[in-house]
Amino acid sequence: MSTTTFAPLTIEDAELLIATARRAAEDAGVTVSVTVLDAGGHLLAFRRDDRAVLISGETSTRKAYTALQLNAPTADLVEAVQPGGLFHTLPTALDRPLLFIAGGVPVHRDGRLIGAIGVGGGAPEQDHGFATEAVTALV
Questions:
Q1: Is residue 5 pLDDT above 80, yes or no?
Q2: CB 39, CB 113: distance < 8 Å
Q3: How many other β-carbons are positioned within 10 Å of the β-carbon of residue 67?
Q4: How far is 113 from 109, CA to CA, in rounded Å?
Q5: Residue 4: what pLDDT?
Q6: Which domains does the chain have, with CATH numbers?
Q7: β-sheet with 43-48: strand ranges across
Q8: What is the mean pLDDT of the chain?
Q9: Which SUPFAM superfamilies does this chain map to (predicted)?
Q10: Taking Cα atoms as reference points, which of 30, 82, 84, 20 lies closest to residue 56?
Q11: 8 Å CB contact between 98 and 132
């Protein structure tokens, strides 16, 4: 019997994700909080600038959690939760409520879901761009 192995998300990966998202945000003149979760939904790394709005930390964590749970960028899920959307009646009885605002992106390696990043503090479209840029830096 053969076993397929893959590399999980490491602390070094998380630090690269955070540094890349933070640099992209700073280049845009935005202060953000960044959360990185491992495949099990556990907090792997977190960064909140003192200048960031306090709630941006919870926002980035919930965006990452949503992207991880549904294995999709939160930007792609916004319409799905509107009335008549695929997830309109999705139960929210999970460990933490889902947040359908752009800025959460799943992280894959070798085709496997290994974690997620969430960015909060800018406009949703900006947060999505910062998170996406960070994920592409891992490849």
A1: no
A2: yes
A3: 29
A4: 7
A5: 58
A6: 11-138 (3.30.450.150)
A7: 43-48, 33-38, 112-120, 104-109
A8: 86
A9: GlcG-like
A10: 30
A11: no
Cα 50 from Cα 38, distance rounded (Å):
25
Of 78, 75, 51, the closest CA to residue 126 belongs to 75
Nearest of 62, 60, 74 to residue 31 by alpha carbon: 60
Q: What is the mean pLDDT of residues 40-65?
A: 84
Q: How far is the C-alpha of 54 from the C-alpha of 70, rounded, in Å?
A: 26
Please check whether residue 64 is in contact with residue 118, taking contact to mean a CB–CB distance below 8 angstroms.
yes
